[in-house]
Amino acid sequence: MPNRGDGSPPATVEIVSEPARVTALEPEWRRLAVDQGNAFVTPDWFAAWRGREGGGERPAVGVARDGAGGLAGVLPLIETGTGRRRALGFAGARFGDHFAPVADGDPAPFLRALGPRLRERGRSVRLEKIDDGAPWAAELARSAGFGTPIPYRAAGLPTLRIGGRTWEEFLAGRSRNFRSQLGRKRRALERDHRPEFRWSAGESEVREDMATLFRLHDLRWDERTGETSLDSPIIRRFLEQFAVAAERNGWLRLCTLTVDEAPAASWLGWNIGGRFAYYQAGFDPARASHSVGLLILAEAVRRAFDEGADEFDLLLGDEAFKSRFADSERQVTSLLLAPRLGADRLAAGLGGLARRGLRRLPEDQRRRIGAAKKRLTRRS
Predict the structure, then answer these.
(1) For labelling, which of 203, 241, 245, 280 has a CA lying 20 to 30 Å from the CA of 355?
(2) Over the Cα atoms of the chain, what is R_g?
(3) What distance in Å separates the CA atoms of residue 91 and residue 102, rounded to the nearest whole number?
(4) Cβ contacts of residue 44 below 8 Å, gap of 6+?
Protein backbone atom coordinates (compact mmCIF):
# COMPACT_ATOMS: atom_id res chain seq x y z
CA MET A 1 0.00 0.00 0.00
CA PRO A 2 1.50 3.38 -0.91
CA ASN A 3 2.24 5.71 2.00
CA ARG A 4 0.07 8.81 2.01
CA GLY A 5 2.63 11.00 3.74
CA ASP A 6 2.92 13.11 0.57
CA GLY A 7 -0.17 15.12 1.57
CA SER A 8 -2.24 14.11 -1.47
CA PRO A 9 -5.99 13.71 -0.92
CA PRO A 10 -7.53 10.24 -0.85
CA ALA A 11 -9.41 8.99 -3.90
CA THR A 12 -12.61 8.29 -1.94
CA VAL A 13 -13.93 9.18 1.52
CA GLU A 14 -17.14 7.94 3.15
CA ILE A 15 -18.78 7.15 6.48
CA VAL A 16 -19.55 3.45 6.79
CA SER A 17 -22.56 2.59 8.97
CA GLU A 18 -23.60 -0.90 7.90
CA PRO A 19 -22.25 -3.50 10.38
CA ALA A 20 -21.43 -5.98 7.60
CA ARG A 21 -19.30 -3.40 5.77
CA VAL A 22 -17.54 -2.45 8.99
CA THR A 23 -16.70 -6.13 9.56
CA ALA A 24 -15.37 -6.41 6.00
CA LEU A 25 -12.88 -3.61 6.76
CA GLU A 26 -11.29 -5.45 9.66
CA PRO A 27 -8.24 -7.16 8.03
CA GLU A 28 -6.95 -3.94 6.39
CA TRP A 29 -7.95 -1.81 9.39
CA ARG A 30 -6.16 -4.16 11.80
CA ARG A 31 -2.89 -3.92 9.84
CA LEU A 32 -2.92 -0.11 10.02
CA ALA A 33 -3.76 -0.13 13.75
CA VAL A 34 -0.95 -2.57 14.53
CA ASP A 35 1.49 -0.31 12.69
CA GLN A 36 0.48 2.45 15.13
CA GLY A 37 0.78 0.14 18.15
CA ASN A 38 -2.57 1.25 19.52
CA ALA A 39 -5.07 -1.36 20.74
CA PHE A 40 -7.81 1.23 21.34
CA VAL A 41 -8.23 1.96 17.62
CA THR A 42 -8.20 -1.65 16.43
CA PRO A 43 -11.30 -3.19 14.87
CA ASP A 44 -11.22 -5.72 17.73
CA TRP A 45 -11.71 -3.01 20.39
CA PHE A 46 -14.43 -1.47 18.22
CA ALA A 47 -16.23 -4.81 17.70
CA ALA A 48 -16.06 -5.75 21.40
CA TRP A 49 -17.55 -2.38 22.36
CA ARG A 50 -20.28 -2.60 19.73
CA GLY A 51 -21.08 -6.17 20.79
CA ARG A 52 -21.77 -5.43 24.44
CA GLU A 53 -25.30 -5.50 25.82
CA GLY A 54 -27.45 -2.40 25.76
CA GLY A 55 -25.03 -0.25 23.78
CA GLY A 56 -27.44 1.37 21.35
CA GLU A 57 -24.72 3.15 19.37
CA ARG A 58 -24.42 2.93 15.61
CA PRO A 59 -21.19 2.64 13.60
CA ALA A 60 -20.07 5.85 11.90
CA VAL A 61 -16.63 4.81 10.68
CA GLY A 62 -14.81 7.31 8.49
CA VAL A 63 -13.01 5.46 5.69
CA ALA A 64 -10.58 6.70 3.03
CA ARG A 65 -9.17 4.74 0.10
CA ASP A 66 -6.33 5.53 -2.26
CA GLY A 67 -6.40 5.39 -6.05
CA ALA A 68 -5.62 1.66 -6.05
CA GLY A 69 -8.49 0.92 -3.69
CA GLY A 70 -6.29 0.30 -0.67
CA LEU A 71 -7.32 1.47 2.79
CA ALA A 72 -5.60 4.80 3.51
CA GLY A 73 -7.33 5.83 6.72
CA VAL A 74 -9.98 4.99 9.32
CA LEU A 75 -11.60 7.20 11.95
CA PRO A 76 -13.33 4.63 14.22
CA LEU A 77 -16.36 6.56 15.48
CA ILE A 78 -19.76 5.59 16.81
CA GLU A 79 -22.96 7.63 16.70
CA THR A 80 -25.23 8.18 19.69
CA GLY A 81 -28.57 9.95 20.05
CA THR A 82 -30.96 11.05 17.34
CA GLY A 83 -31.99 14.31 15.73
CA ARG A 84 -30.55 17.35 17.47
CA ARG A 85 -28.99 15.13 20.13
CA ARG A 86 -26.91 13.18 17.61
CA ALA A 87 -23.20 13.03 18.48
CA LEU A 88 -20.08 11.17 17.38
CA GLY A 89 -17.15 9.84 19.39
CA PHE A 90 -14.58 7.07 19.66
CA ALA A 91 -15.88 3.63 20.59
CA GLY A 92 -15.33 2.80 24.26
CA ALA A 93 -13.70 6.17 24.89
CA ARG A 94 -14.31 6.07 28.64
CA PHE A 95 -12.43 2.80 28.95
CA GLY A 96 -9.62 3.49 26.47
CA ASP A 97 -6.59 5.64 27.18
CA HIS A 98 -5.33 6.93 23.82
CA PHE A 99 -7.20 7.50 20.55
CA ALA A 100 -6.25 8.73 17.07
CA PRO A 101 -7.10 8.28 13.41
CA VAL A 102 -5.72 5.10 11.89
CA ALA A 103 -3.85 6.17 8.78
CA ASP A 104 -1.18 5.11 6.34
CA GLY A 105 0.92 8.24 6.77
CA ASP A 106 -0.30 11.76 7.49
CA PRO A 107 -4.04 11.66 8.39
CA ALA A 108 -4.65 15.35 7.57
CA PRO A 109 -5.68 14.90 3.89
CA PHE A 110 -8.09 12.14 4.86
CA LEU A 111 -9.64 14.18 7.69
CA ARG A 112 -9.83 17.32 5.59
CA ALA A 113 -12.03 15.43 3.13
CA LEU A 114 -13.99 13.68 5.87
CA GLY A 115 -14.91 16.80 7.88
CA PRO A 116 -17.98 17.93 5.87
CA ARG A 117 -19.45 14.43 6.05
CA LEU A 118 -19.05 14.36 9.83
CA ARG A 119 -20.82 17.70 10.14
CA GLU A 120 -23.76 16.30 8.18
CA ARG A 121 -23.84 13.21 10.37
CA GLY A 122 -23.54 14.54 13.92
CA ARG A 123 -24.26 17.69 15.90
CA SER A 124 -20.92 17.34 17.68
CA VAL A 125 -17.78 15.19 17.74
CA ARG A 126 -15.91 14.26 20.92
CA LEU A 127 -12.25 13.46 20.37
CA GLU A 128 -11.30 11.89 23.68
CA LYS A 129 -7.73 11.29 24.87
CA ILE A 130 -5.91 12.32 21.71
CA ASP A 131 -2.33 13.56 21.55
CA ASP A 132 -2.14 17.07 22.96
CA GLY A 133 -1.72 19.59 20.16
CA ALA A 134 -2.42 17.02 17.42
CA PRO A 135 -2.70 19.11 14.22
CA TRP A 136 -5.18 16.70 12.67
CA ALA A 137 -7.83 17.67 15.25
CA ALA A 138 -7.75 21.33 14.26
CA GLU A 139 -7.78 20.29 10.60
CA LEU A 140 -10.89 18.19 11.18
CA ALA A 141 -12.65 21.02 13.04
CA ARG A 142 -11.91 23.51 10.24
CA SER A 143 -13.03 21.23 7.44
CA ALA A 144 -16.23 20.34 9.31
CA GLY A 145 -17.08 24.00 9.84
CA PHE A 146 -17.08 23.77 13.64
CA GLY A 147 -15.75 26.48 15.89
CA THR A 148 -12.44 26.29 17.72
CA PRO A 149 -12.14 22.90 19.49
CA ILE A 150 -12.98 23.06 23.21
CA PRO A 151 -10.53 21.21 25.49
CA TYR A 152 -12.28 19.72 28.50
CA ARG A 153 -9.86 17.18 30.00
CA ALA A 154 -6.10 16.64 29.96
CA ALA A 155 -3.91 13.88 31.37
CA GLY A 156 -0.51 12.27 31.10
CA LEU A 157 0.41 8.77 29.93
CA PRO A 158 3.63 7.71 31.69
CA THR A 159 5.90 5.74 29.39
CA LEU A 160 9.13 3.77 29.60
CA ARG A 161 11.25 3.98 26.47
CA ILE A 162 13.05 0.67 25.98
CA GLY A 163 15.03 1.50 22.85
CA GLY A 164 17.01 -1.74 22.49
CA ARG A 165 18.14 -1.90 26.12
CA THR A 166 18.14 -5.04 28.24
CA TRP A 167 16.33 -5.48 31.55
CA GLU A 168 19.69 -5.46 33.31
CA GLU A 169 20.65 -2.17 31.66
CA PHE A 170 17.32 -0.67 32.70
CA LEU A 171 17.83 -1.71 36.32
CA ALA A 172 21.36 -0.32 36.30
CA GLY A 173 19.93 3.08 35.46
CA ARG A 174 17.43 3.11 38.34
CA SER A 175 18.14 4.01 41.93
CA ARG A 176 19.95 1.65 44.27
CA ASN A 177 16.92 1.66 46.56
CA PHE A 178 14.64 0.59 43.68
CA ARG A 179 16.94 -2.26 42.65
CA SER A 180 17.36 -3.37 46.24
CA GLN A 181 13.63 -3.35 46.94
CA LEU A 182 12.76 -5.40 43.86
CA GLY A 183 15.40 -8.00 44.64
CA ARG A 184 14.66 -8.12 48.37
CA LYS A 185 10.89 -8.50 47.92
CA ARG A 186 11.23 -11.25 45.36
CA ARG A 187 13.80 -13.19 47.38
CA ALA A 188 11.66 -12.97 50.52
CA LEU A 189 8.61 -14.26 48.64
CA GLU A 190 10.60 -17.15 47.14
CA ARG A 191 12.16 -17.99 50.50
CA ASP A 192 8.88 -18.24 52.44
CA HIS A 193 6.42 -19.33 49.72
CA ARG A 194 6.06 -20.91 46.29
CA PRO A 195 5.38 -18.08 43.82
CA GLU A 196 4.71 -18.67 40.12
CA PHE A 197 4.15 -16.19 37.28
CA ARG A 198 1.86 -17.72 34.65
CA TRP A 199 0.97 -16.10 31.31
CA SER A 200 -2.43 -16.97 29.85
CA ALA A 201 -2.77 -18.93 26.62
CA GLY A 202 -5.91 -20.12 24.87
CA GLU A 203 -9.46 -18.80 25.07
CA SER A 204 -10.66 -20.87 28.04
CA GLU A 205 -7.64 -19.93 30.14
CA VAL A 206 -8.02 -16.26 29.19
CA ARG A 207 -11.65 -16.25 30.33
CA GLU A 208 -10.75 -17.93 33.64
CA ASP A 209 -7.85 -15.57 34.26
CA MET A 210 -9.96 -12.50 33.45
CA ALA A 211 -12.43 -13.64 36.13
CA THR A 212 -9.48 -13.85 38.53
CA LEU A 213 -8.37 -10.35 37.55
CA PHE A 214 -11.82 -8.92 38.27
CA ARG A 215 -12.03 -10.70 41.63
CA LEU A 216 -8.62 -9.41 42.73
CA HIS A 217 -9.47 -5.96 41.42
CA ASP A 218 -12.59 -5.95 43.61
CA LEU A 219 -10.61 -7.01 46.68
CA ARG A 220 -8.22 -4.12 46.15
CA TRP A 221 -10.89 -1.49 45.47
CA ASP A 222 -13.08 -2.48 48.40
CA GLU A 223 -10.39 -0.96 50.62
CA ARG A 224 -10.13 2.31 48.67
CA THR A 225 -12.24 5.44 48.22
CA GLY A 226 -13.03 6.79 44.78
CA GLU A 227 -14.49 4.98 41.81
CA THR A 228 -13.48 2.15 39.51
CA SER A 229 -14.46 1.76 35.88
CA LEU A 230 -14.93 -2.02 36.24
CA ASP A 231 -18.07 -2.12 38.39
CA SER A 232 -20.44 -3.04 35.57
CA PRO A 233 -20.84 -6.69 34.48
CA ILE A 234 -21.45 -5.41 30.95
CA ILE A 235 -18.09 -3.64 30.91
CA ARG A 236 -16.39 -6.75 32.27
CA ARG A 237 -17.83 -8.85 29.46
CA PHE A 238 -16.69 -6.24 26.95
CA LEU A 239 -13.11 -6.38 28.29
CA GLU A 240 -13.20 -10.16 28.36
CA GLN A 241 -14.28 -10.25 24.72
CA PHE A 242 -11.49 -7.87 23.77
CA ALA A 243 -8.97 -9.98 25.72
CA VAL A 244 -10.08 -13.10 23.82
CA ALA A 245 -9.70 -11.26 20.50
CA ALA A 246 -6.29 -9.91 21.54
CA GLU A 247 -5.15 -13.44 22.45
CA ARG A 248 -6.31 -14.69 19.06
CA ASN A 249 -4.22 -11.97 17.38
CA GLY A 250 -1.16 -12.69 19.53
CA TRP A 251 -1.30 -9.34 21.37
CA LEU A 252 -2.59 -10.33 24.81
CA ARG A 253 -0.30 -10.34 27.83
CA LEU A 254 -2.28 -11.56 30.85
CA CYS A 255 -0.25 -12.67 33.85
CA THR A 256 -1.35 -14.30 37.10
CA LEU A 257 0.96 -14.49 40.11
CA THR A 258 0.07 -17.40 42.36
CA VAL A 259 1.52 -17.78 45.83
CA ASP A 260 1.32 -21.33 47.20
CA GLU A 261 -1.02 -22.07 44.24
CA ALA A 262 -3.53 -19.32 45.23
CA PRO A 263 -3.94 -16.25 42.97
CA ALA A 264 -2.27 -13.25 44.62
CA ALA A 265 -2.01 -10.72 41.77
CA SER A 266 -3.13 -10.32 38.17
CA TRP A 267 -1.90 -8.03 35.38
CA LEU A 268 -3.62 -7.26 32.05
CA GLY A 269 -1.89 -5.67 29.09
CA TRP A 270 -0.79 -6.31 25.52
CA ASN A 271 2.05 -6.01 23.05
CA ILE A 272 0.87 -4.58 19.76
CA GLY A 273 3.19 -3.23 17.09
CA GLY A 274 6.16 -3.20 19.47
CA ARG A 275 4.35 -1.19 22.17
CA PHE A 276 3.75 -2.99 25.45
CA ALA A 277 0.87 -1.52 27.45
CA TYR A 278 -0.34 -1.89 31.04
CA TYR A 279 -4.14 -1.71 31.15
CA GLN A 280 -5.39 -3.09 34.47
CA ALA A 281 -4.25 -5.03 37.54
CA GLY A 282 -5.49 -6.38 40.83
CA PHE A 283 -4.04 -8.04 43.89
CA ASP A 284 -5.08 -9.64 47.15
CA PRO A 285 -4.63 -7.08 49.96
CA ALA A 286 -3.76 -9.99 52.25
CA ARG A 287 -0.53 -10.29 50.24
CA ALA A 288 0.24 -6.55 50.28
CA SER A 289 3.19 -7.04 52.64
CA HIS A 290 4.88 -9.06 49.89
CA SER A 291 4.38 -6.22 47.34
CA VAL A 292 2.82 -8.64 44.88
CA GLY A 293 1.47 -5.74 42.79
CA LEU A 294 4.96 -4.31 42.34
CA LEU A 295 6.45 -7.73 41.60
CA ILE A 296 3.93 -8.61 38.88
CA LEU A 297 4.41 -5.22 37.23
CA ALA A 298 8.18 -5.74 37.28
CA GLU A 299 7.67 -9.15 35.68
CA ALA A 300 5.59 -7.56 32.91
CA VAL A 301 8.23 -4.88 32.30
CA ARG A 302 10.92 -7.56 32.20
CA ARG A 303 8.92 -9.44 29.57
CA ALA A 304 8.61 -6.29 27.46
CA PHE A 305 12.42 -6.03 27.45
CA ASP A 306 12.78 -9.73 26.64
CA GLU A 307 10.38 -9.40 23.70
CA GLY A 308 12.30 -6.44 22.30
CA ALA A 309 9.43 -3.97 22.60
CA ASP A 310 10.13 -0.34 21.71
CA GLU A 311 8.34 1.07 24.75
CA PHE A 312 6.24 0.17 27.76
CA ASP A 313 3.16 2.37 28.02
CA LEU A 314 1.74 2.61 31.55
CA LEU A 315 -1.37 4.41 30.25
CA LEU A 316 -3.61 6.70 32.28
CA GLY A 317 -3.25 7.04 36.02
CA ASP A 318 -1.04 8.99 38.39
CA GLU A 319 -0.26 6.13 40.76
CA ALA A 320 3.14 6.54 42.38
CA PHE A 321 4.36 3.10 41.35
CA LYS A 322 4.13 4.07 37.66
CA SER A 323 6.67 6.86 38.12
CA ARG A 324 9.15 4.31 39.45
CA PHE A 325 9.27 2.67 36.01
CA ALA A 326 8.46 5.50 33.58
CA ASP A 327 11.07 7.86 32.12
CA SER A 328 8.80 10.08 29.99
CA GLU A 329 5.18 11.09 29.59
CA ARG A 330 2.85 11.52 26.64
CA GLN A 331 0.24 14.25 27.09
CA VAL A 332 -3.32 13.61 25.93
CA THR A 333 -6.32 15.89 25.87
CA SER A 334 -10.03 15.60 25.08
CA LEU A 335 -11.67 18.02 22.64
CA LEU A 336 -15.24 18.85 21.74
CA LEU A 337 -15.98 19.88 18.16
CA ALA A 338 -19.35 21.62 18.04
CA PRO A 339 -21.12 24.53 16.29
CA ARG A 340 -20.20 27.95 17.69
CA LEU A 341 -23.68 28.55 19.12
CA GLY A 342 -24.60 24.93 19.84
CA ALA A 343 -25.96 23.49 23.10
CA ASP A 344 -23.08 21.01 23.30
CA ARG A 345 -20.56 23.85 23.40
CA LEU A 346 -22.50 25.54 26.21
CA ALA A 347 -22.76 22.27 28.17
CA ALA A 348 -19.02 21.72 27.85
CA GLY A 349 -18.38 25.16 29.32
CA LEU A 350 -20.69 24.51 32.27
CA GLY A 351 -19.07 21.11 32.85
CA GLY A 352 -15.67 22.77 33.04
CA LEU A 353 -16.94 25.20 35.64
CA ALA A 354 -18.32 22.29 37.72
CA ARG A 355 -14.99 20.42 37.61
CA ARG A 356 -13.06 23.51 38.64
CA GLY A 357 -15.49 24.03 41.52
CA LEU A 358 -15.01 20.47 42.69
CA ARG A 359 -11.23 20.89 42.70
CA ARG A 360 -11.59 23.87 45.06
CA LEU A 361 -13.39 21.79 47.70
CA PRO A 362 -11.45 20.47 50.71
CA GLU A 363 -9.90 17.03 50.24
CA ASP A 364 -12.27 15.31 52.70
CA GLN A 365 -15.33 16.65 50.83
CA ARG A 366 -13.94 15.48 47.50
CA ARG A 367 -13.38 12.02 49.00
CA ARG A 368 -16.96 11.86 50.29
CA ILE A 369 -18.32 12.92 46.89
CA GLY A 370 -16.13 10.28 45.22
CA ALA A 371 -17.33 7.56 47.61
CA ALA A 372 -20.97 8.52 47.04
CA LYS A 373 -20.45 8.42 43.29
CA LYS A 374 -18.87 4.98 43.62
CA ARG A 375 -21.88 3.66 45.57
CA LEU A 376 -24.31 5.17 43.06
CA THR A 377 -22.39 3.64 40.14
CA ARG A 378 -22.52 0.19 41.73
CA ARG A 379 -26.27 0.42 42.30
CA SER A 380 -26.93 1.55 38.74
Answers:
(1) 280
(2) 22
(3) 13
(4) 26, 30, 242, 245, 246, 249
Residues β-bridged to residue 283: 265
DSSP annotation of 248 reads: H
Q: 67 φ, ψ to 5°?
A: -65, -25
Q: How many residues does the structure list for the chain? A: 380
Cα–Cα dist 118/101, whole Å: 14
Q: Are 284 and 258 in contact (CB under 8 A)?
A: no
Residue 76: closest CA among 48, 106, 105: 48
User: Per residue of the chain (380 residues), what is the pLDDT tens digit?
Assistant: 344 455 678 889 999 999 999 999 999 999 999 999 999 999 999 999 998 866 678 999 999 999 999 999 999 999 988 777 789 999 999 999 999 999 988 899 999 999 998 888 767 899 999 999 999 999 999 999 988 899 999 999 999 999 899 999 999 999 999 999 999 999 999 999 999 999 999 999 999 999 999 999 988 776 554 456 677 889 999 999 999 999 999 999 999 999 999 999 999 999 999 999 999 999 999 999 999 999 999 999 999 999 999 999 999 887 888 989 999 999 999 999 998 655 454 444 444 444 445 556 676 666 665 555 445 434 43
